From TrEMBL:
<feature type="binding site">
    <location>
        <begin position="8"/>
        <end position="13"/>
    </location>
    <ligand>
        <name>NAD(+)</name>
    </ligand>
</feature>
<feature type="active site" description="Proton donor">
    <location>
        <position position="157"/>
    </location>
</feature>
<keyword id="KW-0963">Cytoplasm</keyword>
<feature type="binding site">
    <location>
        <begin position="163"/>
        <end position="164"/>
    </location>
    <ligand>
        <name>(S)-2,3,4,5-tetrahydrodipicolinate</name>
    </ligand>
</feature>
<keyword id="KW-0457">Lysine biosynthesis</keyword>
<protein>
    <recommendedName>
        <fullName>4-hydroxy-tetrahydrodipicolinate reductase</fullName>
        <ecNumber>1.17.1.8</ecNumber>
    </recommendedName>
</protein>
<dbReference type="GO" id="GO:0019877">
    <property type="term" value="P:diaminopimelate biosynthetic process"/>
</dbReference>
<comment type="similarity">
    <text>Belongs to the DapB family.</text>
</comment>
<dbReference type="Pfam" id="PF05173">
    <property type="entry name" value="DapB_C"/>
</dbReference>
<comment type="pathway">
    <text>Amino-acid biosynthesis; L-lysine biosynthesis via DAP pathway; (S)-tetrahydrodipicolinate from L-aspartate: step 4/4.</text>
</comment>
<dbReference type="Pfam" id="PF01113">
    <property type="entry name" value="DapB_N"/>
</dbReference>
<keyword id="KW-0560">Oxidoreductase</keyword>
<dbReference type="GO" id="GO:0008839">
    <property type="term" value="F:4-hydroxy-tetrahydrodipicolinate reductase"/>
</dbReference>
<dbReference type="GO" id="GO:0050661">
    <property type="term" value="F:NADP binding"/>
</dbReference>
<keyword id="KW-0520">NAD</keyword>
<dbReference type="InterPro" id="IPR022663">
    <property type="entry name" value="DapB_C"/>
</dbReference>
<feature type="binding site">
    <location>
        <position position="36"/>
    </location>
    <ligand>
        <name>NADP(+)</name>
    </ligand>
</feature>
Amino acid sequence: MIRVLVCGAYGKMGREVLKAVHKDEHLSIVGAVDLKSDFNDVGDIIGAGKTGVIVGNDLSMVINETKPQVMVDFTNPEAVMNNIRIAINNGVCPVVGTTGLSEEDLQEVRDLCEYTKVNAIISPNFSIGAILMMRLAQEAVKYLPQVEIIELHHDQKLDAPSGTALRTAELIAQVRGTLRQGHPDEFEKLAGARGSELAGIRVHSVRLPGYVAHQEVIFGGLGQTLTIRHDSISRESFMPGVTLACKRILTIDGLVYGLENILD
Ligand SMILES: NC(=O)C1=CN([C@@H]2O[C@H](COP(=O)(O)OP(=O)(O)OC[C@H]3O[C@@H](n4cnc5c(N)ncnc54)[C@H](OP(=O)(O)O)[C@@H]3O)[C@@H](O)[C@H]2O)C=CC1
Ligand SMILES: O=C(O)C1=N[C@H](C(=O)O)C[C@H](O)C1
């Protein structure tokens, strides 16, 4: 059994991770952390009866007391780097789904992993459908280089654009480079009308109640468009990826960025 601590245990993703880890025969929840801890038993959060694992609010203390091998983090962009540092410096391998990490943050984690010989997995999206959407987009852009991205999420999401949209744009740009699209004299009558931009790719962010996590990658060519769309209609969609990462993390080497790199 791999000993797992869940950070962000009361969050939308944290609760789902607790359920998935609890159900997995190779994983065991030994610790849980959230800011607003009222020292509940995790079994009460997931409706599984008493487990004896209590939600704490001090990550270092919970690590000390519960000796996890893996920390799963779904918290927020402000909290995540500190959690990663605490985990790695205590010999605990972080599996991170929290988005909003910068290139500098990733480099810091890479360096920490190398220095401590503790492994880490960070993925902006843990659903297989989203990984396939990105892979297919990299294929499509070879033939249809003009592309825009629309991501649609629930209205409680903090970061925009989504980590998935940024990663998709990065992966597309690795294949096609930076390309100038649209009319050279185009202008915005309202600031932001054309969305944000990464490597010449426009990214549009929609936030509404009713959505979970969705993305369209739209390619345009002469007389035609191609749309690759992925929908996470429930947060269960991320769980096979998260539990796989918890198992693979002990045998990788250093930092792995992107679920796609542990699938093959
Ligand atoms: N990679 C992937 O596949 C996916 C990634 N995500 C990402 O995961 C993150 C979490 O999403 P979601 O569950 O919807 O967010 P929520 O806001 O529902 O959950 C985050 C939880 O973490 C808690 N928290 C905040 N700071 C800390 C801290 N320092 N230590 C412990 N807990 C803390 C929050 O408490 P409080 O509310 O009091 O602040 C909250 O309970 C986001 O960055 C999101 O983009 C989401 C889905 C899939
Ligand atoms: O906040 C979310 O919900 C999600 N966040 C991730 C992102 O920013 O891409 C993954 C997924 O889209 C859900």
